[in-house]
Amino acid sequence: MSEPQLKRHTINAWMEDKPGVLNRVAGLFRRRNFNIESLAVGHSETPGISRMTFVAYGTDRDMRQVTTQLDKLINVTHIEDVTHLPAVKRELALIKVKANNQTRAEVMQLVDIYRASIVDVDMESLIIQIVGKEDQVDSLIKLLQSFGIEEMVRTGRVAMVRGLQEREMGGTDTAVPTHQNGHH
Amino acid sequence: MSEMKTGGQIIWESLMHEGVEVVFGLPGGAILPTYDDLAKYEYPIHHVLVTHEQGASHMADGYARATGKVGVCIATSGPGATNLITGLATAYMDSTPIVAITGQVPTSLLGRDGFQEADVQGVSLPVTKHNYLITDIKDLPDAIKEAFYIARTGRPGPVLVDVCKDVQQASMPFKYPETVNLPGYNPNINAPEEAAVSRAARLINEAKKPVIVAGQGVSIAKAEAELRQLAEKANIPVATSLLGIGTFPATHPLSISWGGMHGEAYCNYALQECDVLFAIGARLDDRLTGAFDTFAPNAKIIHVDLDPAEMGKNITIDTPVIGDALLTLRNLLPQIEPNEHPTWLEQIAEWKADTSDRDILAQETDELIAPYVMRALWHSTGEGNATVVSDVGQHQMWEAQYYHHTKRRSLLTSGGLGTMGYALPAAIGAQMGLPDEEIWVVAGDGGFQMTMIELSTVVQEKLPIKIAIINNGYLGMVRQWQDVFYNKRHAGTPLFNPDFVKIAEAYGIPARAVTSKEEAAEAIKEAQAYDGPFLLDFQVEEFTNVYPMVTPGKSNADMIRRPNSMTPQGE
Ligand SMILES: Cc1ncc(C[n+]2csc(CCOP(=O)(O)OP(=O)(O)O)c2C)c(N)n1
């Protein structure tokens, strides 16, 4: 048997914005022993529906388990593995780096090169915001380390498929007769 | 105009709308308003008071498995609700539809660690199909409607509704909802894709050595007749999973019993040697398959299940067929060509003859051994006419080997979670649902003691349940593992037992100890003849072990067989 190939997968999930839904998703990841590298969640274009992007590491078979198990959560309305789709994948990072009169110019030059921006300036430090692919973010962070990184936060990847597409919600919106205490 | 109703009234009225006739529960402070409304309504639904809430969840489970309806249990907050958890986990693993209703502290006290608060939504999350915490009465009717819908549709499972005490006391105009709005729920109760079905048909038609593995999904979909048509049309031998027992008559010439860790050897050989394996409504867990990558190595595997997450979860499959078992079989049958498979069936018959030769009952012994009791029970109950509720352990395996089930849903057992203590309360639930059925509990002396306190419920409800304790003085199945894998060091497995006959008598239940083979059949008759519950304490030979046995993590092909001459075991 050939070795199953381990890959980094980017998966989008849409879910009803109900109390505890994040707990359900996180609990499932833990219980099924799924390895999640990052997870970002926020509102989608539809009121009441949140959208999550997560990055998981594993084989294609692992990912089929992740997506099918996740899809079984009652509050999850749709899942899409965008790993093999043409998609824009981005992450945002805020990096507080030490910068004084001597080093500030040099830091600003790096910021320019990376098309990052400075969102706060202090006598002793700067906060840099970068939006990009993870490897760009990684590489800027690496360069900034020599100046001294005081604090940093990364959102984790978010992803969106290019072009227009149909998304089907595989749910139920049905009239269910009463007196149905039996098999469907 | 809808009438004003309290939360408690809404709960009971909703249950009535769902056709619920019986609930199993035990009250406490946080659920008292709801209990009070039951009294005010003059008990429109029969409430079975249990001794321990674990019993309530197993009773709801037994009721559900026996009848196919949703079982309902009810408990108070904190310890009441946590006591339900074992039963919910049992039901979750075996896909049993249950709705559990629990009281919760008032919304004003949520999160403050007040008296009897437990995060029941959090605790039950991984062992329920879905759950709700209701903090506003306006969400209550939808939650109950959805709970029943989710519990019984698709792959069934337990759903818990945790209701804050003040919600039970609040009022609102009530009308039971007619629809559910669940945009994220797809129960997959439709027919599978045509292409998948034709591919399955082609594989089955071309097979030289096909085998069917039928699981509980067949019985949930009520597809037993169609399963039989498929087997008979193409002469395909049928194995079942443990939970699939009863989906195909064990006495049918095409039955090859059930497979796996303690399945019959000829069945395991057939599973290992087949070239096409048609698994339907069975989740192919490790107890059935042995080491995953060694299972049915030469077979193209067709897997029919309505849960897409089961596809390839454990076993690499060739043809996934996602859909309802009944609709799948109906669509498949016309595409199946009649077939004989004489060479294959002959091969299986040979394996079967060898299995019979090694059968423990074919070996001479004067001692009362558990397989003998199971066979006697089978004869005495019209060769498979009773419903048996077995507990967990050696006796459970012997029951499955020697009681040849011929009726659908006639074996209730905790297969997935393997919950000792399941049998007695589950039998109570089953008998509540099927008052005219002959129901036998088959339990070990260890597991029986875990929930035997529910004997009071048996008497309270005047249930004619017959109980067979297979008393070997040990936690037998664990002792067996110690015999085989731990050099016979019996740490923590010898039991100190009470006198079970006296225990029964303390509850007013007639009972009798059985110590010899000669008495067995007659004792069973005495129990059957008695109009009410009866307990038999079968004091069996202590050291008999269950064979065949597959070492966990090993291939089914390497099972440890029973010797084919009279060799003392467990010495
Ligand atoms: C609640 C629970 N605890 C522990 C176990 C582990 N276990 C599996 S079988 C078994 C022994 C059962 O002994 P007994 O009920 O006497 O039945 P026997 O095997 O002797 O037939 C045990 C302890 C279990 N399955 N369930």
- Count of discrete alpha- or pi-helical segments spanning 4 or more residues of chain B: 22
Straight-line distance between termini of chain A? 41 Å
Q: Mean of residue pLDDT of chain A?
A: 89
Category from helices, strands and their pairing of chain A: alpha+beta
Name the overall outline of chain A.
Answer: elongated
Secondary-structure arrangement, i.e. CATH architecture of the largest domain in chain B: 3-Layer(aba) Sandwich
Helix content of chain A: 10-25%
* The first-level CATH class name of the largest domain in chain B: Alpha Beta
Multimeric state: heterodimer
Tell me which protein chains meet in the greatest interface and how many residues each side has: A-B, 38 and 43 residues
Number of separate helices of chain A: 4
Largest sheet of chain A: 5 strands, antiparallel
Question: In terms of topology, how is this protein built?
Answer:
The complex is a heterodimer of chains A (about 180) and B (about 575).
Chain A (H helix, E strand, L loop, with lengths): L6 E10 L4 H11 L4 E8 L5 E10 L1 H13 L3 E6 L5 E12 L5 H10 L3 E5 L3 E8 L1 H11 L4 E6 L3 E4 L10 E4 L9
Antiparallel strand pairs in A: 1-3, 1-4, 2-3, 5-7, 5-8, 5-9, 6-7
Chain B lengths: L2 E4 H11 L4 E5 L5 H9 L5 E4 L3 H15 L3 E5 L3 H15 L4 E7 L15 H5 L5 E5 L5 H13 L5 E7 H5 L1 E4 L4 E4 L11 H13 L3 E5 L1 H5 L3 H11 L3 E3 L14 E4 L6 H9 L2 E5 L5 H4 L10 E6 L13 E4 L2 H8 L9 H17 L11 H11 L6 E4 L3 H9 L8 E2 L10 H11 L5 E6 H7 L3 H6 L5 E6 L4 H10 L14 H7 L4 E4 L2 H13 L4 E6 L32
Parallel strand pairs in B: 2-3, 2-4, 4-5, 5-7, 6-7, 10-11, 10-13, 11-12, 13-14, 14-15, 16-17, 16-18, 18-19, 19-21, 20-21
Antiparallel strand pairs in B: 1-8
Helix pairs in contact in B: 1-2, 1-6, 3-4, 3-17, 10-13, 11-14, 15-16, 15-22
The complex binds thiamine diphosphate (TPP).
